[in-house]
């Protein structure tokens, strides 16, 4: 148990339990970041953090007033990603977030740290002071599922046309590990467990050019591209477009409702940003990607899940 991390004797930091989930969800919702949704069973996300990551709460007078989580990405370039850090609005400005983050850094042994910070200047200040440098915007985009695929220049796929197929999560994570040196095996299992979730590959002549995970939307009709990794020797614009319009990504539902949209995130420096905006995408929000190691993530080779890095 992490006790005494906070200087205020009225606070303490401790590992969360399932008994805390209702309060955690109330705090998350009060910060406009609910962890549950009508189309998700129970506490799917929090159960994952409790089992496979670090999940801490801050207590004052026996009541939970904040929580934070961190998930480790393994491999040759390991790092911990701050998945969540939210405080009850009633105690904002009292240092709870700072001590929760310090608690995570004591709990999780990792050589590097990353997060997707909200636009709240207090959050960004907290992460920068903890050694995470703001690197680029994380753009949240959506795309009508009914739009036809745009044309890609003819030399993008000299060996043939791309196709897609479902993979088991372990195979997808192994391919990404070989490309990037980052091991998302735990995360792929979680992504595939979500409603409508699956891991998939985009291939050209049987060779993977991208791997990722996709699922159904949490609230209304639509799909969410949770994560995508692009092969280092592949045109990142062509690979992203092939994934966005692939059968694997759009497999459920087979006939999307007119309002159904595909949502995903892109790093601001990704070379496909302007292309997708010209072809039906819109930006709905943005965060800031922060990392203690600026070379850890190649923004041209990833569609990130802001919760997991």
What's the topology here?
Elements (H helix, E strand, L loop, with lengths): L10 E5 L5 H10 L13 H9 L1 E7 L2 E13 L3 E9 L8 H12 L5 E5 L3 H9 L3 E12 L18 E5 L1 H12 L1 E2 L1 H9 L4 E7 L2 E10 L5 E9 L5 H9 L2 H4 L10 E7 L5 H6 L3 E10 L10 E2 L6
What features would you describe in this structure?
The chain has 309 residues and is α+β, with helices and mostly antiparallel strands. The protein folds into two domains: 11-111, Gcn5-related N-acetyltransferase (GNAT) (Aminopeptidase, 3-Layer(aba) Sandwich), CATH 3.40.630.30; 139-286, Aminopeptidase, CATH 3.40.630. The chain contains nine helices and 14 strands. The two termini are 26 Å apart. Mean pLDDT is 91; it is low at 1-7.
Q: Give the tally of structural domains.
A: 2
CATH class of the largest domain: Alpha Beta
Could you name the ranges where pLDDT drops below 50 across 5 or more consecutive residues?
1-7
**Secondary-structure element sequence?**
EHHEEEHEHEEHEHEEEHHEHEE
Q: Tell me the CATH architecture of the largest domain.
A: 3-Layer(aba) Sandwich
Average pLDDT taken over every residue: 91
- CATH topology value of the largest domain: Aminopeptidase
Compute the number of strand runs: 14
Coarse morphology? globular
Structural class by sheet pairing and helices: alpha+beta
* Range of strand content: 25-35%
Please count the helical segments. Answer: 9
What level of helicity do the residues show? 25-40%
- How far is the first residue's CA from the last residue's CA? 26 Å
User: How would you characterize the largest beta sheet?
Assistant: 14 strands, mixed
């Amino acid at each position: 148990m992490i006790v005494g991390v906070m200087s205020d004797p009225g606070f303490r930091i401790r590992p969360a339990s399932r008994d805390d989930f209702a309060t955690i969800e109330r705090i998350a919702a009060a910060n406009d970041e609910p962890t549950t949704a009508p189309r998700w069973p129970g506490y799917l996300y929090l159960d994952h953090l409790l089992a496979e990551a670090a999940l801490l709460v801050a207590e004052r007078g026996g009541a939970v007033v904040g929580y934070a989580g961190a998930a480790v990405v393994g491999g040759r370039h390991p790092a911990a990603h701050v998945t969540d850090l939210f405080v009850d609005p009633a105690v904002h400005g009292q240092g709870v977030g700072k001590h929760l983050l310090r608690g995570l850094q004591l709990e999780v042994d990792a050589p590097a740290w990353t997060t997707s910070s909200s636009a709240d200047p207090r959050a960004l200040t907290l992460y920068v002071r903890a050694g995470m440098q703001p690197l680029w915007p994380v753009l949240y985009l959506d795309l009508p599922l009914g739009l036809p695929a745009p044309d890609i220049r003819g030399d993008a796929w000299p060996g043939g046309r791309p196709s897609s197929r479902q993979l088991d999560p372990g195979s997808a994570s192994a391919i990404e590990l070989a490309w990037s040196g980052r091991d998302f095996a735990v995360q792929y299992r979680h992504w595939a467990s979500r409603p409508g979730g699956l891991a998939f590959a985009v291939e050209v002549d049987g060779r993977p050019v991208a791997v990722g995970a996709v699922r159904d939307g949490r609230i209304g009709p639509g799909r969410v591209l949770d994560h995508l990794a692009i092969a280092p020797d592949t045109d990142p614009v062509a690979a992203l477009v092939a994934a966005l319009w692939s059968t694997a990504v759009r497999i459920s539902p087979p006939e999307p409702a007119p309002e159904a949209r595909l949502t995903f995130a892109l790093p601001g420096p990704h070379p496909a940003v302007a292309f997708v905006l010209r072809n039906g995408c819109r930006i709905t929000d943005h965060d800031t990607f922060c990392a203690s190691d600026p070379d850890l993530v190649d923004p041209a080779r990833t569609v990130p899940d802001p919760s997991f890095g």
